[in-house]
Each structure stands twice: as structure tokens, then as C-alpha cells.
Design goal:
346 residues; alpha/beta; Rossmann fold; Dihydrodipicolinate Reductase, domain 2; 2 domains; six-stranded parallel β-sheet; elongated
Length: 346
Amino acid sequence: MGEIIRAGVAGLGRAGWSLHALTLEQLPEQYEVGAVSDPNASRQREASDRLGCDTHDDYGDMLADDSLGLIVVASPSHLHEDFTVRAAEAGKHVLVEKPFATSLDGARRMMDAAASAGVAVTASQNYRYSPDCIKVREVIASGVLGEIVQIKMQWHRFARRWDWQTLKEYGGGELNNSGAHVIDQALLLLGDAEPEVACERRSTSLYSGDADNHVKVVLSAAGAPTVDIEITTNCAYAQDRWLIMGTQGGLRGSDSKLEWKYFDPSAVPARPIDREPTPDRSYNREDLPWAEEVYEAPRESFGVRNRRLYEDLHPSLVGDAPLAISAESVLRQITVLEKCRELAPV
């Protein structure tokens, strides 16, 4: 059994409790929840009863615990920057729930604080570990779809919402909440090219607050596919989450099922340009020998992604393994989010 990291979890809301505290509980050979902080007394009691951990009203009191090696920042989004800097200055490694930061300057300040203190800081980009994302990357990398021309990523739903995450003052909105995941995935698929960004955002009556709930982003770069992203709570007829277009085939599907078809160019005759009129003024037509495949993602709880994330993180905290979710990749994502806010203020 390797070194066990004692973790402190800041914030016991949906993410802090279900995705972090309860995930850490499932990894007793790597982690122990040593403390939590949350102003809600009932949530503190729940954590103490189940996890046997120390509880704190005040975040600063938790940071004073020298036994904690990792702080999980799962507070409301507008507090991420301050909480992360304070944790780094206290000599703690930090894992930050999405969105990592609500501004590019804030993200850089967090990274600088960690570098100065000699600690690790990373983001909870758990959707990198989603089975559908892993399979999409695998299919693209195999080359069977040929040159990838366009990738559509559509996070569609129709819903009203009225909690704090609908308010700009708390860093709410779909760009921060869902865009942090979708754009992170998109950049993995785009490759190393630095993208040009186009964006439209709206706040509609389905949100009680003033943050965005309809986001359109297009990423493009020379030699890379166009990535077309839609994130909305205004779509009563949700479309496929994935639609990928390539020169040898395509892929479509959801987070639970993907299907793709492709042809082998070596199995069909070459088609050199023919300048002669087509027979009977017809269009060019041919039957291609399609191969078709289907993938059904395993049924798993939402927290399984976080388990994989924490398993990958542990070697970086106890040894010198590079972070699976690097600072450079996080800053790249935050740069795109910042550009979207500049191009389409709400």
C-alpha cells in the first residue's frame, strides 16, 4: 500500500460531497478525508458521521491543519481563485472543481501561487474520463474516418433553473458550468493548434438569474477540424451529443451509445477528374463498401469519472509523475472561455 494523502474538502454541495468526498472515501489505500469546511452545520454533521473527519465553519481553520496534503476546492465558482491561492500558500496541493477560474488572470495567479510554493495544482476535468470521450478519441486516432473535417458537440436540454449558478456574480452560467467540460474535450480533439474563437451567448427567461444559458462556440485552426459547440437549456428537441465528419466516414451518438461507419479507399476504384458530360445528365453516384461499428458505453455512476481522476492524480502527489491534467491544458481551456466572454458579453 502506498502513501495515503489526507485531503480537506472545501464546500459540501453537489460536487464537493458526491463527486469528491464520497469518491475519496472509495479510495482508502490512496486517500483519507481528514477535514471538511462548509458553513452549513447539517452538512458538517453528515460528513462527520459518515467520514469521521474534522469539520470547520471557516476555510482558514481547515488550512491550518498541517496533516492535510491536498485541498479540494469545491466552493462556489467565484471563490476558486482565493481559496486556491490560500491553499498553495499554506503548502497544500490543490484540486479545483470546474470552472477552474472565472478569469484568465485569476487562473494565472493560481498557477503562480502553486509554482512559488512548490505544490501541484490541477483541475477536476472529469469528463476527460467519460467512456464516450475516450472512445471518440480512440476512433479518431485510429484513422478509419480519414481526415476529420468537422466535429459537432451538442449539449442540449430544455430546463428552467433558479439557483445560484444562474447568477454572474457567483460565476454561474452554462459557459462556466458545462463549457468548462465541453471545451476541454474539444481542445483534446483539436490537437496542438491554437484556435480562432467565435462565440455567441444569451441569457433567456429559462434562467431566473442573469448568467448565460445558451452558448454557441466555434473553434478553428489551420490544419485542424472545425469544432462546432452548442450548450443550451433552450432545446426541446435535443440532437446527438457527437457528430463527426471525416473524408472516409463519420461518427454520431450520445454519452451512452456511439456508432460510426467508414470505407477503405483502397477497396474502391480511383476517381480521376472526368471533364466529359455525365451520362443522361446524371449526378455522380456509387455504392461504397461501408463498414459499421457500434459502441455502448458501460453503465456507471457519475462518480466513476472522478475515481479515475483521483487514481491518476495520486502518483503526482506522492512522487514525480507528471500531472494527468496539466497546468498548460487548463490554461488553454480558460483562455478560450475568456475569449468567449470578451466576444459575447452577457
